[in-house]
Design a protein that fits this description.
heterodimer; A: alpha+beta; 7-stranded antiparallel β-sheet; B: 14 helices
Chain lengths: 118, 414
Amino acid sequence: MHEEPGEGDLEVDAAPERHSDGTVAIERDHGCFRGLSWRAEIAAGDGQGLRARLGAMLEDVTRDARLIAMRTVEGHHVIVVPATGRVQVRLDLECARERRGELALALARLVHDAHAAG
Amino acid sequence: MRTYLPDHDLMALAGVPAVYHCHHFNLFLDQTIDDALGAEAGGAVRFAAAREAAHDLARAVVTSTNAVTTSERITAVQGVLSAMGHGRLQIAASGDSGSATGSFLHYGHTWMEKYGKLVRRRHPADAFAAGFAAGAVEVAFDLPRESMTATETECLALRHGHCSFTLAGGAPGASRPRMTEDTARAHVQPTFTGEHEDKVAAIAAGLRDFTAGVAGDARGLVQAFGVYVTAHLATYYNRISYDAVARVEADAPASVELVEDLLRESGHVCVFNTFGGILLSPEWEAMVGPLTGDPTEIIVGCLAIARALGFGHWTLAEYRRGERLVVRTPSSYESAYYLARHGKAKRPNEYFLQGAVLAIAQLAHRVDWKARPQLTQSYYQQLFRGGQLPWKVTEPRSLATGDSLSEVIADRIA
């Protein structure tokens, strides 16, 4: 018969999870990859200044201006949709599972600060 | 290397029919074949299909890259496998024997990710990689098509540290016509448009741009839209599906309906996970805008996604909110294969298309998109297995039976 999971890894990922440092808040985003994908929000805008400021700190891997994409030296990605303010932090698979929330929050904070500096 | 048949949206890699599918679909379809035929026979069918398709791809790749030596050829083909998101394979062969080792192979790796803590698997998972290795060696050494065998002796999904294969020569298989982009072109019908065509076409084009640069990471895997994505060989999916149905028809005809239902369910699995993941992605939000939850928006989006993934020129023929969804297409990767290999079908048999249209109706009407749902297995169970589905799907016209188009209708059950 088809082997279907019951209460397994996917359900662990499904559990709501949020982190906040008091200013910036992140929550687990869609995906089934064990805490590798996180969501945050900033105010919507045109994104040009934000892209320049983030690009000064991270590698700019943007392919389409509608979707800002930055990569850290550790291989994490920060994605921003300027038109809506959606931020997605995609952590590299190799990062320690227990540190994923903390790492994602730090990267979301980076985006928040770069945005606030505009 | 990637091309689309203009106005028909069938994809090819180096001229070999291909589509994108996620690991949820891939695992489900493989399991369906094994359930239908038994694990041993199912594995053999999956291996043979992979070997055939891989041989054709490998031949096209070594030709286009001008790879001359066996080493160059194997390196080129291994690189393509990783770029397609299937993991890494290291082949060591000398003529008609050899071995291969795999790391992060798509099937074994994702099976462990999805089921590893819940189920003890008893058979290797990587028949596709085994077939790929066999096909690659055939081409590298100019051996007859479908002549190599490969056996997976260690598998990540069996809790071994890595995947290993032994390769050996054998008698060439039955001669089968190659499935190519030209084969697909010969089995499509004059194209047409549907409702919201401009929007569907624009989104599909945008999605193609976004996916054009996607390739395997350092592991040879593609993680995108919340799933592991593969560029996959359409002949693999088609051959295993139609060969399984044919064998069950011959050996246990009473079970055909069940197998067909499972093949349709593969469409549910794909639409829920991959289409849903794309709809919820930042890429979608940037390109199309945030989801409003309007069912028409979801339907239009799903048709565009299908085109971008290479499934065919899916169009919206009719939509009555909450009552009826009609999708028509002049092309489908299933019918192109079936017509080329088997001739006209006795009954509509584009199982994936049928299941996908039903799933689109479900996603359009029963998912609260503004709430940003997590597309988990339990949510899938709730939507698709929580009793009688509120939609009934029929395919009154089918390219596979000789009609000028395929028409799939999802009607709300009163």
